[in-house]
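[worker-b] picked up task from shared queue
[worker-b] task type: protein-ligand structure
[worker-b] ligand name resolved to flavin-adenine dinucleotide; SMILES cross-checked against name lookup, match
[worker-b] sequence length check passed
[worker-b] input payload:
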Amino acid sequence: MSAGGGSGGSGGSGRDPADGRSVDVAIVGAGIAGASVAYWLTRLDPTLSVAIVERDAGFAQASSQRSASSIRQQFSSPANIRMSQFGLAFLRDAAERLEVDGDRPELGLQTPGYLYLATPPQAAALRAQNAVQRAHGAPIELLAPEAMATRFPWLATADLELGALGEGVEGWFDGPALHAAVLRRARAQGARLVRGEVSGFELAGDGDTRRVNALRLSDGTRIACGHAVIAAGAWSRPVAAQAGIALPVHARRRTVFVFSCPEPLPACPLVIDPTGFWFRPEGRAFIGGTTPEPDEDDLPLEPNLGEFDETLWAAFAHRVPAFEALRIERAWAGYYEMNLWDHNALLGAHPAAANLLFATGFSGHGMQQAPAAGLGVAECVLHGGWRTLDLSDLSVARLAEGRRVLEANVIG
Ligand SMILES: Cc1cc2nc3c(=O)[nH]c(=O)nc-3n(C[C@H](O)[C@H](O)[C@H](O)COP(=O)(O)OP(=O)(O)OC[C@H]3O[C@@H](n4cnc5c(N)ncnc54)[C@H](O)[C@@H]3O)c2cc1C
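[worker-b] inference finished, payload out:
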């Protein structure tokens, strides 16, 4: 796939990075996705001028500040497995990679694993996914109920046939710290953060020659660009619509509950219950959540406390009897940038305009995928195609091709 468009290939174009009004690459959104694209662009080619346009300096609603910040390799599609493996390696090296002026970020990476649980009817699918994961170098262990009961005596296993655990290669980290560190390093490498709201695109040409010439901001500013990247998270659909592109990315609210439990749960991983809810330790407390029903667009970013009493508490206590005595401490809500086409990332150049690229639609796994997505999209800008990682399965062009990524392990 080609990013096409004039300034493809490495080397800056001589546009003036100082005023941010004319740049090689203009990125919409400075969440983890936009920050990561900017980080890789300026790392791979320090002569490039890169502007990241962000409307909210405090990132008050950005998903990158509201995530559960966990990372797994238990996907069923090779592209997603590869991206998370890359993300894990990036997190492990992050202190050196993201150092600025001797200041190294502390991301608190812990890897007790994800524990996917399966009832008898679900066990064959979990085994099949495990075979794919192992074939792609993900050391995920399958556990019989007896083994789980020995390892996790606090877990109720009577209705289970199988568990899959990625100890050592899956876990969680400080997501807001990663976001801040990637953005800071991108700026230290020369990317410019422009405060403003993108309100339009200037497009010219037809068919294969159609391209973006500039972004327009709501205050009237015009930013001419060689390439544009839409990385606007849950707001990517209205931003893409400004370029005449229909993008199936919808803002779907998810509530995360923080709770304490009087009994400790030694070696607790991130547990994915067969019914779909999840929980994991967070310091001395726990966090957890589930997929709401119904799941509507654009709900206000306030936690839905009713979800806990209506469905979660009984489900938690069924799986972990000690949770009978849990106490809710607080809750927060954030948007999944849900790609309703197939619940996977939408990356790379769009067929509607050769120099317009996307890094969005992560559908709940964008923190872990952002390092790989940023590299892939940066390489599409610089080289006109995927290089280090083959992310062609996740190309945004699949929307026009009618192709879907088949990923069985979506945590709704
Ligand atoms: C509750 C919850 C739990 C999650 N758990 C995990 C997890 O465990 N692991 C994981 O990997 N991922 C998880 N995610 C998903 C992850 O947080 C997101 O995929 C990721 O943060 C998306 O980053 P982003 O940069 O695309 O979007 P955002 O962080 O939302 O950033 C988009 C930015 O674009 C800006 N913007 C929008 N429109 C415009 C405009 N017109 N002009 C200028 N700026 C604009 C916004 O202000 C925003 O700052 C979770 C998400 C939620 C909500």
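[worker-b] attaching auto-annotations
[worker-b] The longest helix spans residues 78-97.
[worker-b] releasing lock
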